[in-house]
Amino acid sequence: MESIRSKAPSLRSVADLMYRSTRKWNVGYLRYLFSSDVGNKIGMIQINLNASSDFLIWKDSLVGNFSVKGAYWVDQKERFGEKDELWRWIWNSKVHPRMSLLLWRVCSNVLPTGDKFLSMEANTCPMCHTASESAINLFTKCSLAMALWFSSPWPIRIERVSGANMQEVIHNLCSSVDSSLRPKFINCIGVILDCIWNTRNKVYHTGDYVPNVHLIRGEICSRVAELHQVVEENMSQSSNHEGELLPRISTNTSIMVDGSFKEGTLLNVCVKEGKVHNC
Fold first, then answer.
1. Which of 117, 132, 145, 256 is most buried as measured by Cβ atoms within 10 A of its Cβ?
2. Are 26 and 162 contained in the same domain?
3. How many whole angstroms separate alpha carbon 104 and alpha carbon 90?
């Protein structure tokens, strides 16, 4: 490409290789730029005479539109790493927001499991008591977790799913499912993880609580069915009200919150403003 740019520094688009008035290839110019053989082959490509005019696109955007946010992500790619399609699957509109948030927490490894607290003298899984508690052990290696996965509406041998951490495990699970069924599958995964986490907390904070696999399994099945119904109803309502304008909410109070957890350190921030300015 550098050799071509040196011959034609003003070349900016494919249209510059054509006669604009007739929308035909400038074969002589093509031969000059790309050699006779390549130029002739390009000149044989049929041009759609009804096509619209050329326009610029932002190649790093799925829709081709430039945005400051998109440019920032490209500039900070080394810092954030490559995009993972898992996040797009998790935050799909057909996945319940509560499940999306829980899956994000699990995949980001921010749940307060025993391995996060260095001050704990004995870090043992409160349910199986056979290994140190971590997200990967709690959700995939614990005997109770394996039983719940296998008896769920989507029976899974979770211990056979490869992955060094929960993000890899969830990604490998979701990638094996057809895209049309993936949102329902992710909702089911979220319910299973939520029930395992709630059971863990009951065992950890209540000394006399004994998990009942049959009751938890029944809860998972009923919640998954209910969740699918809620999501379908929400999608139906959103399609029926598409295009309707929502009323503007007027308020004198604005509260902004944020939180972060990393390497055993937690930070919560809450900011309250006395007045909201019109935007």
1. 145
2. no
3. 7
* In-domain check, residue 268: no
Whether 247 maps to a domain, the answer reads: no
Q: What CA–CA distance (Å, rounded) separates 113 from 236?
A: 38
Residue 15 shares a structural domain with residue 137: no
Closest CA to 174 of 86, 101, 88, 102: 86
Same structural domain, 37 and 128? no
- For the chain, the domain total comes to 2
Report whether 91 contacts 100 (CB < 8 A): yes
Residues 35, 64 contacting (CB under 8 angstroms): no
- pTM of the predicted model, to two decimals? 0.63
Span 137-191, pLDDT tens digits: 999 999 999 999 999 999 999 999 999 999 999 999 999 899 999 999 999 999 9
The tens digit of pLDDT for each residue in 99-150 reads 999 999 999 999 999 888 766 566 788 888 888 889 999 999 999 999 999 9
Contacts 24+ apart (CB under 8 A), 34-41: 34/4
Distance CA 110, CA 103 (A): 10
Q: Which amino acid is at 144?
A: L
What is the extent of the structural domain holding 17? 2-43
Q: Could you give the CA distance from residue 84 to residue 15 in angstroms, rounded to a whole number? A: 36
Whether 95 and 14 share a structural domain: no
Q: 90 and 107 in contact (C-beta within 8 Å)?
A: yes
Within a domain: 253: no
Query: How many other C-beta atoms are found inside a 10 Å radius of the C-beta of residue 3?
Result: 8
